[in-house]
Amino acid sequence: MFADAPPSASPTPVRNDWTREEIAALFDLPFTELVFRAAEVHRAHHRAGEVQLCTLLSIKTGGCPEDCGYCSQSVKADSGVEATKLMEVQAVLQSAAQARDAGSKRFCMGAAWRNPKDRDMPSIIAMVQGVRDMGLETCMTLGMLTEGQAAQLADAGLDYYNHNIDTSPERYGDVITTRSFADRLNTLDRVRAAGINVCSGGIVGMGETRADRVGFVHALATMEHHPESVPVNALVPIKGTVLGDMLADTPLAKIDDIEFVRTVAVARITMPLSMVRLSAGREAMSEATQALCFLAGANSIFTGDKLLTAANAGDDADAAMFARLGLRPMEGEEPLRAAKASSCAGPCAA
User: Fold this and answer.
1) What is the pLDDT of residues 101-111, one digit of tens each?
2) Long-range CB contact pairs, 183-188, < 8 A, 24+
3) Which residues are marked as active site?
4) Which of 5, 154, 303, 321 is the most exposed, fewest CB within 10 Å of its CB?
């Protein structure tokens, strides 16, 4: 189903000047035409038969003071998630070793914080260094960062920092009130300035309109540098969360599969070199929907049984799906990181 051909010799240009009108026009294309165009862009920059495997571990669960309407870890949620302390470094490294043995190439660690405290940084640094020593790529999501904390993570060798913009700038305040859209962008700027690769995406299916999905993609695709990773999550409506309770038993409780694939396809076209990851919500997707997402340019997934506190398709289920679709785990370098390394082969390599 999916050709395992190398990227083509005539890749599409990378643009950072997309307009909302152009992105809306992509969303409005006939579905098969949109997926076809996205598949062409994907094959111009990525091996179509490869999908990156990543694992996500909650290293500090619950008790977050933020009021994100989708999150079961917020102190504002009545979801039954109990707050825990930061995991011991050795326990995190054991989980990383298991993920590596299961085929993951990137190990992501998430803590339910508004921002890390300086007292937590030595343990965080030790986790990054220990996971890197195993040969895995490292990613952290810890909330907002100061310049000094971003610099410490960069010095430790952190490969990626995840900080999602979540939704469009206009919709953002309806989902979160304890920090602003600008706060998100400021942290991403600090991460980028420190030399860490950016992982930033969002969630669809939160009751937003297509115009909000256009605005969400536009905010990412017009960044000076596209995020190296763009996770696209489908809301998992959890009882006890603001959005989970609000959308329960309504048609908005699950985004239409075709609209979800459209969002993936538009992200691929507008950010051709980025890794587009199927993240939360994949456990509830059919294999047919996931196959369409891969066809439309998604080339990264979280594997394992759990994503932070939500269920996820397990390693065995993913292996079986890969076998049926003729996919294989990604081995090579990601395009944006390879391009960055190539551009720094001269003066900035010193």
Assistant:
1) 888 899 999 99
2) 183/144, 186/144, 187/143, 187/144, 187/145, 187/163, 188/163, 188/223
3) 64, 68, 71, 108, 139, 199, 277
4) 5
